[in-house]
């Protein structure tokens, strides 16, 4: 029999997330002495110091504390999941799920997942977040996101994922650009042309790595933080861009025609993965989203499957 309680774990997680016992006590509507007592009881049960309590500087976690935090979140998720589904023996999925998505992937991937999932599991409170890859990763680590769709490039340790599909970078030009007459283009063909760089991680790093690997230095004219602004500038003939995701219509937001040309020789494809924290046991609602994503986006037979910890 465990010598600790779920309530003690809940208090510990709150302290870790808020950084002070005072903030945790205010959030949980209990006294500071109750918070301190719960932490002391956990440390006694585990035989390890979990926190470093610094006067006027809040609470920091020890290595043991960080280990317990990851697993405590998983236990609390599992306990909530059990409570939600016990009454109907799991016949209907219930609970909540927050799905994150990297901004440029969202228009082509997110809507289909949300639409199909909502129809299959109408009792799950489904929400989503779209933003930069760094914010998506932080959301997974902090627990504000249950899982996310992102490029599988330089992901931090502690995440587990399943590759959904691969996508290839392409050169995007105004339809009347002189180079648009060619069915494929080399990086050498555009290296001296003005570039509109989508200056967000990891798109920026992937683009620059492609040119560096080819021994080239792109001529960057403008840097943007927005995918559609990038395409609009290209549509007006102000430069070309290297983009991974392509809308169904080859037109800019203003309706100007664009030409999308594959890169020859082909550059490394970019894997798109569904990712989640490795240490947390996923709820039934999260597992259902993983199953759905695998059904909608099945990679080629020889493309491999789970990455494991990435």
TrEMBL record:
Residue intervals of the HTH lysR-type domain: 4-62
One Pfam family of this chain: HTH_1
GO cellular component, one term: protein-DNA complex
Keywords: DNA-binding, Transcription, Transcription regulation
InterPro entries per UniProt: LysR_HTH_N (IPR000847), LysR_subst-bd (IPR005119), WH-like_DNA-bd_sf (IPR036388), WH_DNA-bd_sf (IPR036390)
Sample GO molecular function, one term: DNA-binding transcription factor activity
Cited PANTHER family: HCA OPERON TRANSCRIPTIONAL ACTIVATOR HCAR, TRANSCRIPTIONAL DUAL REGULATOR HCAR-RELATED
Family designation: Belongs to the LysR transcriptional regulatory family.
Protein name, as recorded: LysR substrate-binding domain-containing protein
